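Progress report, Aim 2. The chain analyzed during this reporting quarter is listed below.
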Amino acid sequence: MQLILIGLVCAAMRSNAQQDGNPHHWDRTRRCDQIDYDPPCGPCEGIGGIVWGDDNKDYTPTSCEVIANASSITDPKRPVWGATQTIHNYYEILIGKKTDPFCFQAFPGNDSVGELCYRPQQGKQTYDAENRKGLRYDVNIKTELGNVSSIVLHQGKNMWIVNHFPWYEGGIHQCICTEPHQGGDYSTPPVYPIAYNWTDNLRYVGREKLGVEYISIETTLDHWAFGPHHVWSYPDSGQVLRMWQPFNGLEVFPDGTNPGPVDESAFADVPPTLCKKKGGALVRIKCDDDGYPVPPKNKSASKTVSVDHIRARQKVPGASFRGESFGHMSSVLNKWLERDDRIGTRACEEWSSREIQQLQGLLYLLRDDALDKVYQAANDNRRMRATLEQLQSDWKELNSIVDANAHLHTVQRDGHCHEAVMWYVHHLTEEAKDLIATMNLKLPLLAAEPSVACETLDDESPEALHRVCKSYTEQVTCASCHSNWNP
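Predicted structure tokens for the chain:
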């Protein structure tokens, strides 16, 4: 993905460069632009490394030893980038603006302002500037919920990102349709795939002995730069081995860049079938019926149907959805769940907490923001109490506590069963539930009885029990409206 943004940023670099103010206060090792820096970047500056956060300490710089300054090398060989080429294996940490908890929609920008995503991934690149006029990535992405496979297609002014989440049998697909513009500003011209001669803009910095991540070698390379973009190539061949841009990403090409023929079938499915309404992915974002991007100004109104809003605004459930006790409530609601032929069910005790956390990650992805706004405005117990990122942090903490206190697993699991059911019932539209019917997805049933351990909680109870029960009490909120029992 960094390569896409070379073309995107270069046009604006002469005016932008460090005018974003370097808001995260990165040092000259992590960030040193070749333009608008005083003094300009020299050898072993702006080299970057393995990075995982915005703070300047959230990265491990690679090793670097100066071999020669630019003035000492006569006519260095320019980095090689062909009009057509296939890079069969490369490693990347994609850096981009954070717009969703998973960083699924992270896209590099032309400034470092705001919170950024740092997404490790590995895969293949196919570039064809001659016939298909496109750039394709096939990558595996590491996420908090497991590995995701992704295809990114950039052809003309359009880009498609197709993600496959293999967390359940059959998997879930998501397609994001977008039209890249500088800084996401649709008033600027659209951005096309990188030009094959982009390396002509690079300026020589010097020769270095550089440590190269992922392949664990130190080797002599020529250092080139343009704006915040840095490229390292072999002095004799010009093949690119490594690239770094502090707010776009790190890329390593173990076999170097090798111009040559490409398999044009890589661009045969454009727009991708999964981005179209007919036969498309379960989750389609910013796509019209034919699979093309819908600009923000043309976004259609929310598709949330009135029955969803009516239910969201109804604080007290109907009599047929209530019980006289916790156990009776669970029995009544479980019968309703079992009648829903759009989703299968399994008893709560057949799940582990981590399995339900993965399910909740998917439900969070499918949720309708308009419904949550109703709950938030009314301070309703059905509201989302945190971002998924915050929830995942809490889950990680609770998992550690429960791993050390196995007897608390039932309490944690039962809380997740109730919360997952609540999310499915109250945060998904009927349309989303209809889409789920095409998947082999199961939902946990509600636990039959409340947690005895939490009912007997007192000041002398262990701290671990207090922490797990606090989470349980927040999760089992359905009982406050669906039964006469209060947790």
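DSSP finds eleven helices and 17 strands in the chain. Residues 1-17, 298-305 have pLDDT under 50 and may be disordered. These observations will guide the mutagenesis work planned for the next reporting period.
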